[in-house]
Structure formats: C-alpha cells, structure tokens
Write a structure and sequence with these properties.
alpha/beta; Spore Coat Polysaccharide Biosynthesis Protein SpsA, Chain A; binds beta-D-glucopyranose
Length: 369
C-alpha cells in the first residue's frame, strides 16, 4: 500500500513537471516568434478591440469641409528637378458644378456583378473613342450631378501594356457608373532595376495633388479588375482594403491585415502615416509596412463584404521577392516619421495628359534608410 502510494505520488509529480516544462517552452517560442516577425497581423482600434471587417457608410458632407491644396509645393516634399525637355501641362480648371444637385448616395445605374472583359479588349485608339465624356488626363465628373467624392486612382506601372489596356477598358465604365469624380494616374518607373511599387504610389499622390484637390487616393494594381460595381470607389472613413476576394486566392482573404492589391485612403490619412516607405525595392512587404503604419497611427483597415469586393487578376510571371523586406518591416516603427512622403525624391522624366489617363514617367533614386 505504502509503496504504491509513493509510486502514484512520483508519477503525479513527474507529469506535473512535464506539463509545466511544456507550458514554459510554448511561452518561450511565442515570445521568440514575436521577436522574429514584426507584429503586423494585429489590428486594434482605440479601445483595444480587434477590428477588421467593417462595412462603412459615409455621412453627407463628410469631406466637404476641407480643401486640400497642391501638395508638391509643400516644403516637406523634395522633387528632383524635371528634365529640361519636359513641358508640364496644366489641367483645365474643371467646370463649375456647384449649381448641380448632389449625386445620390447610391448610384442609380449600378449593375452589381458584371462580366469583366479581358479577352477582347479594343486597342488604345479605339478605346479613346469609347469614353467621350473623359477630359484630358483620364479625368471624369458626372454631367448631371455633383459627385460626392474626388478620387485619384494611382496605378504603379511598368511594362504591362496589355494589362493597362484591359484595366482602362474596364475601370472607366465601372467608375462612371458609380458617378464619382476621378482621375487616373499611371505612374511608370523607368529603367530595369527592381520595381518600387510604394515609392511610385507616393509619387502618384504628390502628382495628383499637384493637379487637383483630390480628397482621397485609391492605390490600384494594374492587373486587378473589379467584378461588381457595388464595390464603391469612394473616400473611406477608415483606410479601406478593397481587393478582399481575388480569383487567384480562391476568393479568400489571404490574411487579416493584408493591405495590398487595391486600397483606399483619404489624403489626411495618407499624410498622417507619412505615406508609404520608400525603401521596399522588389516584390512584397510595402503593403504590410503600410498596415503597420496605420496601426501605429491608430487607424484600422475596413473592408466591404467579400461577395462584393471581388476581383479578377490578370496572369503574369512571378516577380522577384525582396529579400530585405523583413528587415525593413522590423524597423518600420522607428522609420515612420522620416521615411515616406516627407523624404520622397524622384526625377520626373515626363508627364502627359493622355486621353484615358495621366502618364507620369519617373526615375527613382535609392534613398538611404
Ligand atoms: C507580401 C505582401 C503581399 C501579400 C499577398 C505578403 O507576403 O508581403 O506584399 O501583398 O503577401 O501576395
């Protein structure tokens, strides 16, 4: 009796020790995981509550109080001098539409889900005749009502002419049904070095604000085609990740805090986070860095429902991933105030108001971290 009692006690003690050891090693690995990866996947609102899927409504006159002026003149933005050969065209002052009634909150001509046309896209010359209501530079305002939002669509670009054609063919029809006032800015990186998507988006923001008092930006990959026009390209109350469900990802969100593909931010939100980092050369990470910036500034990512925010992705070859992306993600919080919109530098090689879009060709310098 005495011996078996002792055996039971020894067994209980051993099992308890094992449980405690296992628990400690779990704690240890969780801690290390946090040290290895930056905490990019946790979005909390001001009260510490997790916030991701959040359908927004936009109150009347939400954006009408503040006019945001030409940004490229701001003392914080250093533009390398444009090449002397480039004539920078100025935009016509838009027609005064203040007497028109405000457009309805829900645009009346939406179709819902529609067929994205990617196989039979007309060539550029024909496309140009298809959108007679566009102004130079691919700008549009509805003719019979005053748009509720002034939206700059910023498209980072290089060497994807077929994609650009399909994008323009689909997006103009889509946006015009939404009765937004918009301009399309295709920002092309010159040369053959690694692509810097984030820096091109900073350039697009600066150049768009230099042209007009846009209220918000939609940063848009050229290969993503929206499939449902209820996915309204409006100015968001909180930054909005638009490309929630993409065919390539089986129409599922790859992870909660993704902010790549298509995303919308107001000019104020963009300024608050100091735009995108300029240090991400090559594929990946720049959108995660922006998600971190949003969290640091107590903004959170909102989304439309996945059955509406659907996209088709055009096919393209794999791009080379940036091996340095994790390094810059770790140090993101330290760099937010000095690496971004306020440290942006570029050389503007060309700016053309084409019939379907504003084309900006730039050379991007490597900036010091
Ligand atoms: C990259 C992001 C990218 C996402 C989806 C992540 O691993 O860091 O930049 O948007 O994958 O492809």
């Amino acid at each position: 009796m005495g011996r078996s009692y002792l055996t039971v006690r020894v067994l209980v003690l051993t099992v308890s020790c094992l449980v405690v050891l296992e628990y400690m090693s779990l704690l240890q690995s969780a801690e290390n995981a946090d040290k290895i990866r930056p905490s990019i996947f946790c979005m909390l609102d001001n009260h510490g509550v997790k916030q991701t899927h959040f359908l927004q409504s936009f109150p009347r006159d939400y954006y009408t109080t503040e006019l945001l002026g030409a940004d490229a003149n701001s003392s914080n933005l250093f533009l390398l001098p444009p090449s002397p050969k480039v004539a920078v065209p100025t935009l016509n002052v838009p027609v005064n539409r203040s007497t028109l009634p405000e457009c309805p909150m829900i645009p009346p001509n939406l179709q819902g889900k529609f067929n994205v046309e990617i196989d039979e896209v007309p060539d550029f010359a024909e496309l140009e005749t298809m959108f007679p209501s566009l102004e130079a530079g691919g700008r549009y305002s509805p003719s019979d009502c005053r748009a509720r939002h002034r939206v700059a669509i910023i498209v980072p670009y290089r060497d994807r002419e077929e994609h650009l054609k399909a994008f323009l063919f689909n997006i103009h029809r889509f946006l015009q049904r939404q009765q937004s006032e918009y301009g399309i800015f295709v920002v092309e990186q010159s040369g053959k070095g690694p692509f810097n998507r984030a820096m091109l988006m900073n350039v697009g923001a600066a150049e768009a604000l230099n042209q007009y008092t846009y209220q918000c930006f939609i940063f848009h990959d050229v290969d993503l085609m929206p499939e449902d026009d209820r996915n309204l390209y409006t100015c968001p109350i909180q930054p909005r990740h638009m490309s929630v469900s993409i065919d390539k990802f089986q129409y599922r969100l790859p992870y909660d805090e993704i902010f790549g593909g298509v995303s919308a931010m107001t000019v104020d939100q963009f300024r608050l986070v100091n735009g995108f980092s300029n240090l991400f050369w090559g594929w990946g990470g720049e959108d995660d860095d922006m998600a971190n910036r949003l969290r640091l500034k107590k903004l959170f990512i909102s989304r439309y429902p996945a059955n509406i925010a659907r996209y088709k992705m055009l096919k393209h070859g794999a791009e080379k991933a940036n091996p340095e992306r994790f390094k810059y993600l770790y140090s993101g919080a330290k760099r937010i105030s000095k690496d971004g919109y306020n440290s942006l530098k570029y050389r503007k090689i060309s700016l053309e108001l084409k019939p379907l879009y504003t084309w900006i060709l730039v050379e991007l310098p490597k900036l010091k971290p």
